[in-house]
Specification:
The chain is mostly helical and 135 residues long. The protein has one domain. The chain has a two-stranded antiparallel sheet. A hairpin with a 2-residue loop joins strand 1 and strand 2. The protein is globular and about 45 Å long. Keywords: Membrane, Transmembrane, Transmembrane helix.
Length: 135
Amino acid sequence: MFLSSMYKFLFTIALAFFSFILWIIYLANTASNSIFFDLVRAIPYGDKFGHIFLFGLLAFLAIVASRFRTFKLNALKIYYGTLGVLIFALTEEASQAFLPSRTFDFLDLGADLIGIALASLAAHQLERRNPDINR
């Protein structure tokens, strides 16, 4: 019972964080100003670290909220949360090529992928050390 309510709570947190990222994307797409953008500009490589953090945290939350569910691709187990965030990141980054206020950047996509990969590794370690966590 406790784990079930914990996963519902984590799903809510993941959904709220996803909504936050959508809001940030909206602000960037409309060339709006935000304190977040000012903060990112003040930190060396802040944009790349921001991508790693945002997409990494989203992937981690998605993996845990989906109870570490996986599918197999040959011998590789892939978390459904990883796949969902990966598709979202690829779509979002590619869409920037068609928006006049944005520019497509392979380094941003690379930072997204690094964040997603790190989150997947962290989730795997958490699951491995706590085998009953996904029940």
